[in-house]
Write a structure and sequence with these properties.
2 copies of one chain form a homodimer. Chain A is mostly helical. Chain A has one domain: Ferritin, core subunit, four-helix bundle (Ferritin, Up-down Bundle), CATH 1.20.1260.10. Chain A has 10 helices and no strands. In chain A, helix 6 packs parallel to helix 9 and helix 9 runs antiparallel to helix 10. Chain A starts with a helix and ends in a 6-residue tail after the last helix. In chain A, 45% of the residues are buried. At the A-B interface, helix 2, helix 3 and helix 4 of A face helix 2, helix 3 and helix 4 of B.
């Protein structure tokens, strides 16, 4: 996170190379220049989605109420369906699902360890915020894939029902336990740093790091703005 | 379990009331006389399926290999889809999903506690054996529901892909760790008692207990035969 803020402080110096950044208000910036090869994209994305599913399913198991269990199970279902769709892309491309994910499990497990949360509420907030961020991120990173795969993969990430379910459930929990808000706001702010680092590690950067930074930064600015809107939707200050 | 064996020892004395029991080889016996009202059926069945999902998702999280994780995630997906389909039946019938499940959570949680297993292998064997048993059981219990709901609910239970995935994964694990077989055989035999008690508690019995027993027993004999076949499929002696 410190690293990112250091970069952010240099922002005015960064050359504005990509014309599309002028269209920031109307066009989503993407990351097509930094998209890894399909096998790597799918291996990372599928395992990250499996991690999100694991956290949501822990959220189902530990829910303090049957209503919470029922609601979060829907979010878990959406997330495992996304994992399955990504796994099918791996199979379709001739890979083995486990083999494609294996090189990325250690780094994603470490990210998971850092963002899992100390209790059910933190787990749920993390699932809502990190899954939302990573869905946004991978959807933009997919833009550099071959067109056929890109369209299918963007469609996978277009399903935001899980996010809506978690938002509604969290709003309910925060209404029932207003004293949670301060702790959840701190937790939400902490998560963005680790999530950004996890996302950045999936970029295939060039030899020209300074130029890369200038191009990547506006995208991350948008991703962070979306993170802030997600926190706003819970009434938490980012 | 002891209770069941006591009943079994009286089997020859039991009056053979249902003509269909003559067709045992070709016709599946059902439990239509003991089907609870729709709301109770759905509440129990949906929560039991959620418990199966929770165990499978724990199986995903704790899998010792990425290949195991990938395989079991498919079984978890099938089970959450079954839960969702049952939850939709609750909504369709005008109930709330959490409200319908609530009266049955304590008993099913207790069943879960007893059958969860001490490690990943036991959890997986339990998920395979108890889910298979309960799918068989609820499919037969559904026969007494109104025709429209019955057909849709029987269709939910007809999906056995999850069972096949678990069987294949467990066969792989047992091949890799042959010393597990003896412990898993003991565990599988233990599970049948608790699973039968859980199933029996879902039956709506009449005032005539002796007559009920005589009618229920052949169905449970079939369910146990199916349990034995599931253990056979793992090379375990039931």
């Amino acid at each position: 996170m410190a690293n990112w803020f250091r970069r952010r402080s240099r922002r005015t110096d960064a050359p504005r190379i990509r014309p599309r950044s002028e269209d920031l208000a109307t066009t989503k910036l993407d990351l097509h220049e930094f998209t890894p090869p399909l096998a790597e994209f799918l291996g990372r994305a599928a395992y990250a989605q499996l991690m999100i599913f694991e956290n949501l399913s822990r959220g189902v198991a530990n829910a303090p109420t049957t209503a919470g269990k029922a609601a979060i199970s829907r979010a878990a279902e959406v997330s495992i369906a996304k994992h399955r769709a990504l796994a099918e892309e791996i199979t379709r491309s001739g890979g083995s699902v486990a083999g494609a994910m294996e090189p990325y499990t250690a780094a994603i497990d470490e990210f998971d360890r850092r963002t899992r949360g100390a209790d059910w509420y933190e787990t749920l907030v993390a699932a809502y915020l990190t899954a939302g961020f990573l869905d946004d991120f991978y959807a933009r990173l997919a833009s550099g894939l071959p067109a056929t795969e890109r369209d299918r993969i963007e469609a996978i990430y277009a399903d935001r029902e899980g996010e809506a379910v978690l938002r509604d459930q969290l709003n309910q929990e925060l209404a029932d336990n207003p004293r949670l808000a301060a702790r959840m706001a701190v937790w939400g702010r902490r998560l963005v740093g680790d999530t950004m680092l996890a996302a950045r590690s999936a970029l295939t950067l060039s030899a020209n790091k300074k130029s890369d930074e200038a191009r990547v930064e506006p995208v991350f600015t948008e991703l962070i703005a979306a993170h802030t809107r997600r926190m706003d939707a819970l009434g938490l200050t980012a």
